[in-house]
Each structure stands twice: as C-alpha cells, then as structure tokens.
Amino acid sequence: MSASTMIPDSALASEDWQIAEGDGHKPASLVIQLRQRALVFPWFRFVYAEGDNTCVEVVFATHAIQITGSGLAALLAALAGQRVIRVIEPSENDAKFSVRGATGRYQGPAIHSITVTKFE
Questions:
Q1: Which residues are within 8 A (CB) of 106 and not within 5 positions of it... i.e. 6 or more apart?
Q2: Where are the domains positioned within the chain?
Q3: If DSSP states are collapsed to H, E and C, what string results for the chain?
Q4: Dihedral angle, C-alpha 10, 59, 113, 117, nearest 10 °
C-alpha cells in the first residue's frame, strides 16, 4: 500500500479542525480546544505525529496529545505539513451522537475525544 493510499489529501477537512489557507504561510502555533480549557503549542516544539483513521498521536517537546475519532488520516496529513491551526474537542453529546452545531447529523471526519498528557 502506498503512502498516498494511507494518508489522504489534507484538503479533506472537518468541522473539528481548522487548516491554514493554502497561501504557503504556516501557522506559528497549534491550539488544542478541549471542552473545559485550551492549550497552545508552538509548532517549533513539534516532535512528531503518528496514527491512522481512528487515532492520532501528536507529540511536542513537553506534551503528548492523543486524538481519537474517525477519518483522522486527513488530520494526520495536515499535521505533517504543520498546517493545522486549531483542533476542537466536541461536546460529549456531539461526539456520542455524531452531530455538529445546528447542521444535525454529521458524516465527515470527526474527533471523539482528545487527551493531553504533560511530560514530567
């Protein structure tokens, strides 16, 4: 299986993450928007990301971020290019029932939960 088959084009966006415009400028940081708080990680502290369609791990120098959901290979592709501006953890009900905002039932790539672990 080729890499292009495993990691789709990051243009496949989601309501759960924002990608920088395609003008060649990379964002300075990544915002992780959790249900109760937000964390900002500068991209220059990025170490690596790995995963598949159901789970992505993003590692910075001080924290590991585990993202679970569906269709996450598109998020992984955008992370590889450091084009992601914000990753948003949906409310528990939105994640459980696959709904987003007023649009109702959501079928696209989706985040179910985000766990952030600080390295000691």
A1: 15, 98, 99, 100
A2: 3-118
A3: CCHHHHCCCCCCCECCEEECCCCCCCCCEEEEECCCCEEEEEHHHEEEEEECCCEEEEEECCEEEEEEEECCHHHHHHHHCCCEEEEECCCHHHHHHCECHHHCECCCCEEEEEEEEECC
A4: -170
* pLDDT tens, position by position, 84-120: 999 999 887 766 666 665 555 656 788 999 999 999 8
Amino acid at 112: H
Residue 55 reports pLDDT greater than 70? yes
Round to whole Å and give the CA distance between 58 and 70.
16
Does the pLDDT at position 3 exceed 50?
no
What is the token pair recorded at 4? 């292009």
